[in-house]
Specification:
single chain, about 450 residues, alpha+beta
């Protein structure tokens, strides 16, 4: 059985021996069988809280007024089981000196999701789930269960499916959990080598976040874009793992509902498009030229659509709005609808993958402008403008330490939209997330 820690005893004495007034008894059931879905509060914890009139037993356990150590503080007179120091046990598990990000935290080490339950029984209600590599705050560690908080969920996960403290950090490192780094100094040089005398590839500003390949005591390797991978001093970048949080049952249900609505809508749009194509094929063919703009872009989604007999029906499609207007702000609005789509080196497809210059080339092509293929070539198109005079729709160019290697579309308000890299795809960033070296105006020159 647990014995009260020094911290708990001090608190109890200061509060006038609260536990003595309450009269808590310990009666933990041994020999229970658990699986990956087991997480919960024991019957005795529930009886204890119910006896004290708690409306929300979970909040009582997590707001500091009651702890698991308190609940199990007083053994029965016949209790002969060995005592365990909960404070020492918790400290040894959740301390994080090597990976301070995981101090008092744990990550899920299951292959898939692990359920979070409201009581310590496989029959207890599931209140949410934590995905593989998901992180949680550890409130208390018991013999077989840990009381955790993650996202909007507060409940229990079986200890065997968690790694704690420094062990959590090492597990994330060994299992390829993505890391990112945030610059903590005004301007940081990205070097070609792990050497302060090596070539400076670019400058990056404070507060921007970058993908981290590796981290050492002195140097951290980062990806700035598709054309820059270099080294920064480790002391000037704060690195952390990008662990997901738990998703509650209610949140998952809402996400499922939205996904179904979007899939159904896309399927209906696809059917309407097919009907229009059939009508067009059946109509008499006449002459006439085409227009320079497509009515829509369509991209196949992974969600499948239903179909009747005969050949299998295609997957539903996502529909994008046609180009509208003629100004730089109109072009930016058009480009922004492709944010989230994939990056593909050498690609020019706004829906199935483009690199930085392919993205710019395709966006501008839909507004009637023919641009060269590479970023370096595009930097010679249009009219060069001052970086202090840029406006929506202008092109910003970035150097990789020598030649121009990256291009983006300026949105206004200090933001750009661009095809960044294979990890992030098409995204928005601060215009100075790396140092721009040139600006060109194509629209309205």
């Amino acid at each position: 059985m647990y014995k009260p820690t020094k911290r708990v005893l001090a608190a109890c004495l200061a509060a006038g021996m609260l536990l003595t007034v309450v009269g808590v008894r310990s009666d933990v059931q041994a020999g229970q069988d658990y699986d990956s879905s087991n997480v919960g509060i024991s019957v005795k914890v529930g009886e204890y809280l119910e006896g004290n009139g708690a409306e929300d037993p979970v909040s009582d356990l997590t707001d500091g007024s009651v702890t698991m150590a308190d609940v199990y503080a007083e053994p029965t007179a016949t209790d002969a089981e060995p005592e365990v120091d909960l404070q020492a046990k918790t400290a040894s598990l959740t301390n994080a000196e090597i990976f301070p990000q995981f101090q008092d935290r744990a990550v899920a080490t299951t292959e898939g999701k692990v359920n979070i339950r409201v009581a310590s029984s496989t029959d207890a209600e599931v209140i949410g789930a934590l995905d593989r590599g998901g992180v949680c705050l550890v409130d208390e560690v018991g013999d077989e269960w840990s009381l955790i908080e993650s996202g909007t969920c507060v409940g229990y996960i079986a200890n065997e499916y968690l790694a704690y403290g420094d062990d959590a950090g090492q597990w994330c490192l060994d299992n390829g959990i993505v890391r990112s780094g945030v610059v903590n100094t005004a301007t940081l040089k990205v070097r070609a080598e792990k050497d302060e005398n090596s070539e400076c590839l670019t400058l990056i500003p404070e507060g921007e976040e970058y993908y981290v390949y590796s981290q050492g005591d002195e140097w951290t390797e980062i990806a700035v874009d598709d054309d820059i991978r270099g080294f920064v001093k480790s002391e000037y970048i704060d690195v952390s793992f990008n662990n997901p949080r738990a998703v509650s049952v209610e949140e998952q249900a809402e996400m499922d509902r939205i996904a179904k609505e979007e899939a159904d809508r896309a399927w209906l749009e696809y059917l309407a498009q097919q009907a229009a194509l059939q009508q067009q094929a059946a109509a008499p063919q006449g002459g006439g030229g085409g227009t320079r703009r497509q009515a829509t872009y369509t991209a196949t989604q992974t969600t499948g659509g239903g179909g009747g007999g005969g050949a299998a029906a295609p997957a539903p499609t996502q529909t994008y709005a046609a180009p509208a207007g003629s100004g730089g702000a109109d072009l930016v609005n058009y480009a922004n609808q492709f944010v989230g789509n994939s990056y593909k080196w050498g690609g020019t497809s706004l829906t199935n993958g483009a690199d930085c210059s392919g993205f710019v080339q395709s966006v501008y092509a839909n507004y009637g402008y023919s641009l060269p293929r590479t970023a370096a070539q595009q930097s010679g198109a249009g009219t060069e403008v001052s970086l202090s005079d840029i406006q929506a729709g202008d092109l910003l160019f970035y150097s990789n330490g020598g030649d121009i290697g990256h291009v983006a579309i300026y949105e206004g308000n200090g933001q750009i939209v661009h095809a960044s890299n294979s990890r992030d795809g098409i995204k928005t960033s601060s215009y100075d997330y790396r140092t721009p070296v040139k600006a060109v105006r194509v629209i309205g020159q």
